[in-house]
Amino acid sequence: MVASASFNLLRQQGQGSLSLPAGSYIYSLCRSGSDALAAISSDNSLRRFDRQTLKLLPDGVVTDVHSGSNGGVTCLCAVDGAISEAGPLLATSGRDGTVRLWDSRAMNHGAVSVFLTGNDKRPALLSLACNPAIYSIVAGSELVSAQAALSFWDLRSPGQPRMQYVESHNDDITELCYHPTRNDVLLSGSTDGLVNVYNTTIAEEDDALLQIINHGSIHHAGFIGDKVIYALSHDEVFSIHPFNDPDQNIVEPAPIQFGDLRSALHCDYAVDILVDGGIYAAVGSTREQTLDLVPIVASPEFHFDQAKVWRLPGAHGEEIVRSMLLDSQSQTVFTCGEDGHVRLWREDSEMIIQSDTKSADEPKVKTRPDSQAHDGKHSRNKETRKEKRHKGKRYKPY
């Protein structure tokens, strides 16, 4: 793992299997109200559980979430803020081409809303984002018949999309993220290698595109504050780019290329880049059975602070960690993975190893609303879009 680093240890304080069938993977976690978390898993279930005990809540399991011969749940996010008299809401997307909205207090009563991508054969949905401030939910599809679509709905109006973008990507759309302060700005990432940024108030797709970044098959991408974009590929290549604001006529700084994180941080795989109140690369080693949170600091320019790494010893054993949730309020880290378990971690204040420096502060971060050759340029004109690339073969998200 991280070489020549000081490790501050987080110790496992609990674990739970959520009563999953043997051999199940847990894909992702998200918050669900003040006292619970939710998870989706490879058995096509949605499960809600207590965040302290990691035990299922009453009526906390929905099986066959996205049913049918082409079914299977793919994404999960919390719908923050009340849009109705329902309790905390959860949104899921699936291989059946639908987005479903669930009242977390009564999940076993069925979805409260169903959003469709079309009337005929619907492509699988591989990415999902929600912005309750503008009553918007958006999903990205896999490539079908040479088309990968971004579909937008009004949360108050289930049914057919209110808008679609169908030309900006020519392969599976694997990532979606709204800007943290500009409700009209959306980022998408795809296995075609591109990260696109849109002004979603514009229906004409070419006019809506604000920026195109050519990075490589996108595993995760998102915003760091208001002015920075990060991209992480399926083969662990990481870069940071300026968000080009077309309203400001200024010379943007060059992107920062970190290269393959497996070499840079001596790990086996990257889980995600965790952002908000801090920036951390979450990287794991199945060989050493560890998971590290490596701080990324911005001064004088973005770089790894390998003197203040948080380590989760044991991690999920020899299995890959799929998702993480950091809760600074309770000073707790939650992880889930391919071993079919959720684990809870807290600081071991008495344990610092390989340390010649002062201990780092507890990470004060949260996850997003609930994540090659470079052409040398951080963005390109719409007319110079990249040719379709082969999909990453090392890792398939579902």
Automatic annotation (TrEMBL):
Database matches in InterPro entries: WD40/YVTN_repeat-like_dom_sf (IPR015943), WD40_repeat_dom_sf (IPR036322), WD40_rpt (IPR001680), WDR89 (IPR039328)
PROSITE patterns on file: WD_REPEATS_2
Keywords, sorted A to Z: Repeat, WD repeat
Keyword Thylakoid: no
Biased composition (Basic and acidic residues): 358-386
Chain positions covered by the region annotation Disordered: 354-398
Biased composition (Basic residues): 387-398
Domain of life: Eukaryota
Name of the featured protein: WD domain-containing protein
Native source species: Coccidioides posadasii (strain RMSCC 757 / Silveira)
